[in-house]
Amino acid sequence: MLQQQQTRTNSRGEAYVIGPTGAPLTINDLPPPDTGRWVIRRKAEVVAAVRGGLLTLDEALERYRLTSEEFLAWQRSIDKHGLAGLRTTRIQQYR
Hints:
Strand order of the largest sheet: 1-2-3
Shape: globular
Number of strands: 3
Structural class: alpha+beta
Distance between the termini: 17 Å
Order of helices and strands: EEEHHH
């Protein structure tokens, strides 16, 4: 199911959401725009940032040079299988 988070503000006035590890996630904590290796945690952080309002979907797609299909696949995998669904080595198992 689609999980929406509310954006919160920390003591420095930075907007944050709770990331996949349970820790606060600010825009500065997101993977760098030139990320080449998409591990589970990084994918989940981008999904959490979009769901929480740190980035719009369009901003995320542009920043990380993703297709909407790719991002939506990440989101569906998390919703259906949790973080394990983002493993590329297990992709056939979760389809």
